[in-house]
Design brief:
- Helix content is 14%, strand content 43%.
- It is globular, with a radius of gyration of 19 Å.
- A 5-stranded mixed beta sheet has the order 1-3-10-5-8, with no helix packed on it. A 5-stranded mixed beta sheet has the order 2-4-9-6-7, with no helix packed on it.
- The protein is mostly beta strands and 147 residues long.
- It is built from 1 helix and 10 strands.
- The longest helix has 21 residues, at 2-22.
- The chain has one helix at residues 2-22; strands at 26-29, 41-42, 47-53, 61-66, 71-79, 86-92, 97-100, 110-116, 121-128, 137-145.
- It has a single domain, classed as Sandwich (Jelly Rolls).
Length: 147
């Protein structure tokens, strides 16, 4: 009886650990060049991205992902420094604008909820409100499905 209880507890713990581990987003670092859609860094739909604009000519970053399932995706863009607001643009592969925060706002945190279709490709474009970037401009971008 003790052996059966121990085995059941071990199985339960291993299932819990594997489910927690799979809940972590994949980590990415933006790599240049990614200034056009054709150069977009490929990420997953459940991702954590660290990005930056380090040079005067680097004024936009593109990321692409293919939705593995249909549902509502949450995309959050947060600057590293409070003095660096960003625009967040989302398009599907048909160039249909899904969402756009380029409203001239200096709001720092950008949050977008987007309905995505399984198998469809989407592009995320990040650009600083102030162009060209005059100093190191860093940001964190995260994507995840809402329950």
């Amino acid at each position: 009886m003790k052996k059966r209880v121990c085995m059941t507890l071990l199985l339960g713990m291993s299932l819990l650990i594997s489910s927690v581990a799979s809940a972590r987003p994949a980590s990415f670092q933006d790599t240049e060049p990614n200034n056009t859609k054709s150069q977009a860094n490929v990420i997953t739909a459940h991702a954590a991205v660290s990005g930056s604009f380090k040079t005067e000519g680097d004024i936009v970053d593109y990321f692409a992902f293919t939705a593995p399932k249909s549902g509502k995706l949450l995309i959050i863009l947060q600057p590293v420094f409070t003095s660096d607001p960003y625009n967040l643009h989302l398009e599907d592969a048909d160039k249909t604008l899904a969402s756009d925060t380029a409203d001239g706002s200096t709001e720092l945190r950008r949050l977008v909820k987007l309905d995505v279709e399984a198998g469809k490709k989407y592009y995320i474009k990040v650009d600083p409100v102030e162009k060209p970037a005059t100093h190191y401009n860093g940001y964190h971008l995260s994507t995840s499905y809402l329950q």
